């Protein structure tokens, strides 16, 4: 949600990929891809954004905290990021999503969006359930 220098962004992508592989993810069993190369993520985010009301996004704690840290000049990208997260989840018709406590409200937004979409257009998206890790 914050602009990056292109060279830094490219290096971050490589570093993240290396870290994922170093954690033991087997690329023969898992698909690794750059989300930004899959236009359906942004397309679905747009559609879901048209079904999501702004007051709901303004109530999310992450928006309030980050906006306050940016002198109350948060960007549209920051505000709508949870809708993009919902699109990321729903695009693959995920039924279960591993989340940390700090992302539970974002997953609840994804659940609400799925239910709203299904009510309006017919059963299409599963309503994803949270998998909370126990530390």
Automatic annotation (TrEMBL):
GO process annotations (BP): mitochondrial tryptophanyl-tRNA aminoacylation
Domain of life from the UniProt record: Eukaryota
Position of the signal peptide: none
GO molecular function: ATP binding; tryptophan-tRNA ligase activity
Enzyme Commission number(s) from the entry: 6.1.1.2
Keyword Ligase carried by entry: yes
Presence of the UniProt keyword tRNA processing in the record: no
Keywords: Aminoacyl-tRNA synthetase, ATP-binding, Ligase, Nucleotide-binding, Protein biosynthesis
One GO cellular component term noted in the UniProt record for this chain: mitochondrial matrix
Broadest EC class assigned to this enzyme: ligase
Family recorded in the similarity comment: Belongs to the class-I aminoacyl-tRNA synthetase family.
Protein name, as recorded: tryptophan--tRNA ligase
């Amino acid at each position: 949600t914050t602009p990056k220098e292109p060279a830094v962004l490219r290096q971050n992508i490589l570093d993240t990929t290396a870290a994922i592989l170093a954690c033991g993810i087997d690329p023969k069993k898992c698909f690794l891809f750059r989300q930004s190369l899959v236009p359906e993520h942004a397309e679905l985010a747009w559609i879901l954004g048209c079904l999501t009301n702004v007051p709901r996004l303004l109530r999310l704690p992450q928006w309030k905290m980050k906006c306050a840290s940016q002198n109350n000049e948060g960007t549209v990208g920051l505000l709508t990021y949870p809708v993009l997260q919902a699109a990321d989840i729903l695009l693959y018709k995920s039924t279960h999503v591993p989340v940390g406590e700090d992302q539970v409200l974002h997953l609840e937004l994804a659940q609400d969006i799925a239910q709203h979409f299904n009510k309006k257009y017919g059963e299409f998206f599963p309503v994803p359930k949270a998998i909370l890790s126990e530390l």
